[in-house]
């Protein structure tokens, strides 16, 4: 027996768990308003997923929000939940209860070029899917990459390692401003009460529904979306890394998982309005590199989809973008400390000298490689500098 939550009502139903959240944003999914009740389904069997997702086709192209939750999410961790946000519903695919057969049923969709997966920083999610289930995540729009491309288009310079977090993206009014929300409707609900909370010494106003336990934080009408529950979940994860393995899923777990995807389609359409053709090509290529970045194996990505060439319409004399590549640089045992340097100073100096992105596996691994993404000349320059660090001649 499961529960449906509809603001101030709780109804016993059979089937899968549904949590109805009132979302009010301007657009999602081909311009469909988000001022309707969006059901959240906890999925334990593939039959509970939409047929157009399970059987991708060129005739039914889809754009969905996507994310994963788990324990130490990487090649060695445990994938617990996959979140899929459609324009009219959110599906929480329960890998713990549904098992490998449920995740394998999603493989065609996750690898399909007919389904666009909108995600924020896909590297570790892709790694977990690849090593735990043999899934090669493909056709993603990574909002972290898109954000950087838009910043570059608009003339802002990003510092090395200055990647926008998902919480930071939600707080950016250009993509998720509360001005797009109908505060009259929110305030008109008799169950919603204005309260104040303090976060990092700052008072934040929010609307609280005591019957639903839903906090919607409003710093002001011109700001982006901010919610403290994300930080509360992070605290719980630090206290108990097994948080996402517990069943049945609590209301907080369902809300937290859904919150990570429910605005992604809205953000996607906002970003697509801003990206030019050059940036869209970079977005596609770097998204493919992000997906395979930590997924290196003995065949050197040979069985992954090919990287698209530079489009003809961008090859115009000296303004054509440079070819992009992904390089996986081997680091001999005992040399990673030299590569990173004291407090990261060594690798930071390389990042500042090269127009390329540089990632290390860190504690999650792989521990003996450095991954470099960018234009060919800049990647080769970074490789040479990093090899020099290993030899301690720089």
TrEMBL record:
Gene Ontology BP terms: nucleobase-containing compound metabolic process
Superkingdom of the organism of origin: Eukaryota
Limits of the K Homology domain: 323-391
GO terms, molecular function: 3'-5' exonuclease activity; RNA binding
Protein name per Swiss-Prot or TrEMBL: 3'-5' exonuclease domain-containing protein
Start and end residues of each 3'-5' exonuclease domain: 40-221
Pfam families: DNA_pol_A_exo1, KH_1
UniProt cross-references to InterPro entries, sorted A to Z: 3'-5'_exonuclease_dom (IPR002562), KH_dom (IPR004087), KH_dom_type_1 (IPR004088), KH_dom_type_1_sf (IPR036612), RNaseH-like_sf (IPR012337), RNaseH_sf (IPR036397)
Keywords for the protein's UniProt record, in alphabetical order: RNA-binding
